[in-house]
Amino acid sequence: MQVHAYGAHAADKPLEHLNITRRATGPHDIQIDIAYCGICHSDLHQVRSEWAGTQYPCVPGHEIVGRVAAVGAHVKNYQVGDLVGVGCIVDSCQHCEDCDAGLENYCDNMVGTYNGPTPDAPGWTLGGYSQQIVVHERYVLRIRHPEADLAAVAPLLCAGITTYSPLRHWGAGPGKKVGVVGIGGLGHMGIKIAHAMGAHVVAFTTSESKRADAKALGADEVVVSCNAEEMAAHAKSFDFILNTVAAPHDLDAFLGLLKREGTMTLVGAPATPHPSPNVFNLIMKRRSLAGSLIGGIPETQEMLDFCAEHGIVADIELIAADGINAAYERMLKGDIKYRFVIDNATMGA
Description:
By secondary structure, this protein is of the alpha/beta class. The protein has 11 helices and 17 strands.
């Protein structure tokens, strides 16, 4: 079937209206009418070929929410009208150690929601900047938030799980001191989720003007990271630091804030590498520097349920489809609090 979408024909071309083809709904498939799709910084990296391997036309979008429009004959857990979401994954091998553990995000054959291999036309996946999508039921998620919050739920499908997974894995909770570096699309979700988990949350920012914002999001303390005295006051005191910054920066400044056996996990994906940290910052206190990639399907559902229970959604600005290119430019300037979300009803306008 033909559906309206927005995508780019080349790295140096703006996104524009396209008509794309979606496959027919198979026995285990769910067809979704997309209501909203979040804009992730990954979308910009991929569509502009800042990450290798972009295929064109490129239709980005992996923060998808909407309603079930049709289900395949063998689908049992969803029905027409259900509120659902699709995140960064639409396929995997389904039988490796990672898939068996519900960690499809680490499967060597994980297929992303856009720019991944598929037998569907045109040969690679086309994402959520479109009015409909067809996805295997395994990769569809149930949304339990009120429908009025649906647009603000969309960024949870990437920003939410990207921050929830490491916070959960490394044990953020009562009695733990947790730092969140960066107050942006990822960082604002990290603050909200760590606060809801019961941790003592310290937000790090380079902007004095963001102190009040961070407190409003749930931070117990705010540190301006370019202030040496403020940083020194927290030396060797953190159990865990979630670093969301997607630009190269000095990791040692934050590694020195970890307790013995503390961990800093990177979730931001810079276009060029960070400066190498001083190995003695790790050795002398048995600290760890780690990374984390989104989350598997079971954990993503857990995150959505946790956020629904705690009333957590993203702080968003809703835009029409013809505003995507302007949103990209504003995103590059940091001119957003904190995520853009597309009203997909405007795709055909």
